Amino acid sequence: MSINPKQKRLLIPNGETVSSTNHEYKIVSLLGSGGFGHVYKVQQIDTKQFYALKTEDVDIDSRLNRLKVEATVLSACGKATYRQHFLRLVDRGVTSKFKFIVMPIVAWSLDKIRKDVLNGAQFS
Question: Rounded distance, CA 95 to CA 18, Å?
């Protein structure tokens, strides 16, 4: 693992595996970086399915525990009547260096749609 010098956050190299209590995931590529961590394209070892794995450093201030909030929201949305409109929480876990959630991979992020499709315009 290496540290991204601009953001001082851990980068997981392609090919490395990340384990939860339920599954193992192989890092395929870095999809993007945000304010609190990175998002990777991963392949679940046993099923060969591709997912997005989102990380957050373990030592982040607990008041800013955004990944935990996101996992809670995704879990609640998975139980909602209109759940087909939301991403589902596939898995979650923690290592000595980072916490992570696993979710289905989607075509584009809202940021990419805003930049590329809406030419930088704001959503209303």
Answer: 8
**What is the domain count for the chain?**
1
pLDDT in tens, the chain (124 residues): 555 544 567 899 999 999 999 999 999 999 988 777 899 999 999 999 999 999 988 775 555 566 566 666 667 666 656 556 677 788 999 999 999 989 898 876 666 777 777 776 666 5
Within-domain flag for 124? no
112 is in an annotated binding site: no
pTM of the predicted protein model: 0.71
40 by DSSP, 3-state: which? strand
The DSSP symbol for 8 reads T
CA atoms of 32 and 102, how far apart (whole Å)? 15
Sheet of strand 91-94, all strands in order from the earlier edge strand to the far edge:
17-19, 24-33, 38-44, 50-57, 98-104, 91-94
CATH code of the domain in which 30 resides: 3.30.200.20
Establish if 60 belongs to a structural domain.
Answer: yes
